[in-house]
């Protein structure tokens, strides 16, 4: 089983959106028995809370399930459990490095570095633009799935 963790500041907007979108992709590609996905925060602000209403609304618009999404904080042990730890912005990545004690480890990277955008996923908690975030996260998740399938070709056999 390949384990993927999406991380943002509060785990109520971007990372649960990525978790839900990626899970939806895995179901559609019949890969949910080979790849698991979770999300977490670098802060403890929203532990135990559901995603932001804007995240829930945009996922509902695209008929993406939000079942089981609950805010949690990333733990140091997550480094051992997950093969891919993806931050939504540079600040998240720096916080993940600090939390895990693994600076510049290749399993930790920024989602949009897999796309032509090579930038941070804007936080809709502050921008209010959940559509832009959805579009970028969707593109990043597609690129991530391609990366995983390239690095683990036995998953599709």
Automatic annotation (TrEMBL):
GO MF assignments: protein tyrosine phosphatase activity
Transport listed as a keyword: no
Keyword Acyltransferase: no
Enzyme Commission numbers on file: 3.1.3.48
Domain Phosphotyrosine protein phosphatase I: 2-147
Catalytic residues as annotated in Swiss-Prot or TrEMBL: 8 (nucleophile), 14, 123 (proton donor)
Record keywords, A-Z: Hydrolase, Protein phosphatase
Annotated PANTHER family: LOW MOLECULAR WEIGHT PHOSPHOTYROSINE PROTEIN PHOSPHATASE (PTHR11717:SF7), LOW MOLECULAR WEIGHT PROTEIN TYROSINE PHOSPHATASE (PTHR11717)
Family label: Belongs to the low molecular weight phosphotyrosine protein phosphatase family.
Protein name, per record: protein-tyrosine-phosphatase
């Amino acid at each position: 089983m390949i384990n993927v963790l999406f991380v943002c500041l509060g785990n109520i907007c971007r990372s649960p959106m990525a978790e839900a979108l990626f899970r939806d992709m895995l179901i559609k590609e019949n890969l949910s028995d080979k790849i698991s996905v979770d999300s977490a925060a670098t802060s403890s602000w929203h532990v135990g809370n559901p995603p932001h209403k804007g995240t829930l609304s945009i996922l509902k618009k695209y008929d993406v399930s939000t079942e089981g999404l609950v805010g949690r904080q990333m733990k140091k042990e997550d480094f051992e459990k997950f093969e891919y730890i993806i931050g939504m912005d540079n600040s998240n990545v720096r916080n993940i490095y600090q939390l895990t004690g693994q600076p510049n480890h290749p399993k930790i990277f920024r989602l949009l570095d897999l796309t032509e955008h090579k930038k941070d996923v804007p936080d809709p908690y502050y921008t209010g633009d959940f559509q832009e975030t959805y579009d970028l996260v969707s593109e990043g998740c597609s690129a991530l799935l391609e990366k995983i399938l390239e690095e683990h070709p036995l998953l599709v056999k």
